[in-house]
Amino acid sequence: xxxxPASPLLRFSPFLLLLAACCASADVSAQxxxxxxxxxxxxxxxxRISQQEAxxxxxxxxxxxxxxxxxxxxxxxxxxxxxxxxxxxxxxGASVQGRMAAYAKSDKNNDGKLTEAExxxxxxxxxxxxxxxxxxxxxxxxxKDEMQKGSVAVAQQMVAxxxxxxxxxxxxxxxxxxxxxxxxxxxxxxxxxxxxxAFFDENxxxxxxxxxxxxxxxx
Length: 219
What we know:
This protein is mostly helical. The protein has a domain of 71 residues: Recoverin, domain 1 (Orthogonal Bundle), CATH 1.10.238. It is 50% helix and 9% strand. The strands form four sheets. A two-stranded antiparallel sheet has the order 1-2. A two-stranded antiparallel ribbon has the order 3-4. Helix 1 packs across helix 5. The two termini are 30 Å apart. About 9% of the residues have low confidence.
């Protein structure tokens, strides 16, 4: 089983983690009482957020250079999606690290074999509920290797589920089943993001294609 790749967000400062959350949210307030998501900063609807446009939200302005991966002086949807992917990978990686830390604490006799009773006593409810799946060799206990591999598998499923959810949302929105979302289809299904259509339509062909489509992790 392949190991989960190290997440780029593991190198991010606490400030950039906050910025990632800001960019991910459809409900963060740029100003008191005003719903906000980062695409709204594209005031001239050219599909790019300039430094001047980013200045409207201090968190985005301060982290602008870090989000602008290609250093062209603008933030694009591709760069925001890269941030979202890193955020999801960070969450998946953290779930593996957290489960391994819980394993170390729950294995009270330090024999490298976690019994179901130890897992239960350690509050590892997910492991208890899926004990047989983690116990790959069916010897009645979970080794560190089995815990690592099982935790990575769960994290990979978490990442895969994100992709499947985006695919399902896209297919649902594609009313005429032509493999792309017109502005009308996009607006009808995702009204919160409708003002940012140009931000999503990066190739400027008047439609959002599967490769261009993604929504915030918390959507």
